[in-house]
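User: Teach me something about this protein's shape.
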Amino acid sequence: MLHKRLVSAAMPALWRADKIQHKAAKLGFDWPEVSGAMDKLREEVGELQEGIDAGDVENIKEELGDVLFSAVNVARFYKLDSEELMHAACAKFIRRFRYM
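Assistant: First, the predicted structure itself:
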C-alpha cells in the first residue's frame, strides 16, 4: 500500500509529488496515457478558476496545490524533473524581468 511506503516530507515538494506518483503508478494507480493526466490538469485548472471566481481563498489554495500536483504528473509521463523545470522557469522569468 502507498501509505506504508511513505515518501519523506523533507523532500522538495515537486520531487515528493513525483515520487508519490511513481509509487502510486507501481500499484496500478496511473493514467494509461499522458492524455488522462492532461485532462486531469485541465479539470484542476477549471476548479481553480471556480475558486477564484467565488473569491474563496481556502478553495484557491487547495485547487492550486492540485494544479501543481497534476502538472508534476504530466512531467512524469515525459520523465522530466519537475524541480529542474521550476528552476528553469524561475531563471527565465528573472532574465525577462531584468530585460524590462
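Now, about its shape. The longest helix spans residues 34-54. The mean pLDDT is 95. If you'd like, I can walk through any region in more detail.
User: That's plenty for now, thanks!
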